[in-house]
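Work Package 3 (structural annotation) set out to generate three-dimensional models for the target panel prioritized at the project kickoff. During this period the team completed the workflow that converts sequence records into discrete structure tokens, so that structures can be stored uniformly alongside our sequence database. As a representative example, we reproduce one entry of 60 residues exactly as it appears in the project archive.
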Amino acid sequence: MQHHHIEVIPGESVRVGNLIVTLLYVDGDHVALAIEDPDNTASIDPMDLCDSQAPLALMS
């Protein structure tokens, strides 16, 4: 497994495997991500994360 560090600004998207992850906004220590599955093989709701939660690592 490889770990990658990717910096994005709100509105930018990155592809992780078959998923497209878009950074919606950053507000202090809160971030919101939209995760899309263009193949419709998974149902994923937008995520709202904050600093007090476990660190987010997207791995490919």
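Residues 31 and 49 are 5 Å apart (CA to CA).
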